[in-house]
Amino acid sequence: MIRLVDLDTIRQAYRRIQPYVHTTPVLTNSSINRLFDANIFFKCENFQKAGAFKARGANNAVILLGRASGRRVVTHSSGNHGQALAFAAATHGFQCTVVMPSTSQTVKVDAIREYGADIVFSENTLDDRLQTLNKVLERTGGILIHPYDNDDVISGQGTAALEMLHQTRRLDAIIAPVGGGGLMSGTAIAARSIYPGIEAFGAEPALANDAFISMQQGVVQPPNPPITIADGLRTALCERTFHYLTQHGVSILTCSEESIRNAQRLLFERMKIVVEASGAVGLAIVSDNREKFRRRRVGVILSGGNCDITSL
Amino acid sequence: MIRLVDLDTIRQAYRRIQPYVHTTPVLTNSSINRLFDANIFFKCENFQKAGAFKARGANNAVILLGRASGRRVVTHSSGNHGQALAFAAATHGFQCTVVMPSTSQTVKVDAIREYGADIVFSENTLDDRLQTLNKVLERTGGILIHPYDNDDVISGQGTAALEMLHQTRRLDAIIAPVGGGGLMSGTAIAARSIYPGIEAFGAEPALANDAFISMQQGVVQPPNPPITIADGLRTALCERTFHYLTQHGVSILTCSEESIRNAQRLLFERMKIVVEASGAVGLAIVSDNREKFRRRRVGVILSGGNCDITSL
């Protein structure tokens, strides 16, 4: 497999998607800085179109397909990638089908329908999801846009870090959540190409530490049982993202569920922003590894904000 | 009484306070725009230092006092102005006393204490608050910084609109909440001096429509019974702010309590931001007056974010 993502493909992706996505702000908060004795820069991808960084990768991948003219993109996702692909498809004139587990939250189903995408439900097992996906691909002749095992998607995700590094002065470290590893791959490639000395940390819940073990053992691990509240991070790496994380010197750090909840609460109460559990793990990592970040300039990507009021 | 606030004093205030306050972002949201068929620009003062626009006026007033050297500033406030003054005092080396009703929420008391200010409790009647305030002023020799009946405070509040107009292209209308009228005065003076054609709307809950009636009858009305959920807007205008609102052609619009709650929810769910009830009335006004804002470019100042998780 040829793996092509580099600073150039990320810069090209940025020029390509910029008319269709938000330039999200970088916020700082002095009381959180005091609490952790660090200088933290929060990249607010929770404010991104469709509520998460996923809009970046989905737009890049869809634009690169060229002319729409009746063509269809397809994916399986219970969460943000499904919304992002439905949004990107609607923006660029493609049809879209999203395979979702029948147990998905109504609010997420509705959000995807609002963008005009079709939904096909599957059982809530990986096997049945993939079977259903394959049937849809066969039946519709659609094009699969995988949430992270796709270089165009990864180049798009890398634009969040690229943009952030334009918005801040030099950072000592950058932290992004790790589920399938698409965001973290793009983040590490962008950040370490621009500043080779920057440390790139992948943030994982301890209850979903498959990437941590994968990197330690040098072999991609299967996903953990899906119990962490950070539901967007329950997936495992693929060979592609494992390769990028290894090649670009990413270290994985883990955090407790309690720290994720506390991070969400701090972001709500002190910064007045809504961040889903999966999106708040970067701050939970700072909290659970204070010595590592003390007195340093740390970029934290808050990756998404799609959660309902009651989950907080 | 000489009233001195104009575009120059607001510009001077802006240069003065800029090192001490946040340049808050202006956010847009396409799903909210679709919902109201308008082009809305949200000025996020909920992200401001100490959680509200009040940090602007408090800093301007405190800096203009000159050398601190043991001097004390004093105010009465159950809410954001108290926090803002405590923050400004701490920043510039002043001592600070805030008179608060003994029924104030613990979280607000704690926030003021965290900035190192002293708190003196009063009964929850306006009479007792003013008596207590006067006693504190006598005893300490402190300087009163009124939350809105003060031109330096009003010049500071006007910097939110000034900054917003730098961040957006020309707006057709600008909306800010009206409690005592300090923010609205500064907003109207800044906006209409820069763009004489802009419409300036003051946003009031229908349950606290004293400014609406004051403007209609040409006489400052007393406050309504304090029942609106927008607790920061329960106060009434003073002669000073009434003068500015009249002089600068402000129209007052009112909204229902339900629309305030819905606005808070939209801001949370669609924009992923936390806005207190008083801070969300601008959007509630758009919702309750749709024809007025249809297809127009509307600036909405989201004035504060200080609310706890359970109030949503």
What is the CATH third-level topology name of the largest domain in chain A? Rossmann fold
- Tell me the count of domains of chain A: 2
Mean pLDDT of chain A: 95
Secondary-structure element series of chain A: HEHEHEHEHEHEHEHEHHEHHHE
CATH architecture of the largest domain in chain A: 3-Layer(aba) Sandwich
Can you summarize the main beta sheet of chain A? 6 strands, mixed
Distance between the termini of chain A: 42 Å
Work out the oligomeric state of the chains in this entry.
Answer: homodimer
Read across the widest sheet of chain A, the strand sequence of neighbours is 1-2-10-7-8-9
Rg of chain A, please? 18 Å
Shape of chain A: globular
Largest interface: A-B, 21 and 21 residues
Q: Find the structural class of chain A using helix and strand composition.
A: alpha/beta
Q: Work out the helicity level of chain A.
A: 40-55%
Low-confidence stretches of chain A: none
Total number of beta strands of chain A: 10
CATH first level of the largest domain in chain A: which class? Alpha Beta
Looking at this protein, list some descriptive labels.
16% strand; six-stranded mixed sheet; Rossmann fold; homodimer; globular; 312 residues; alpha/beta
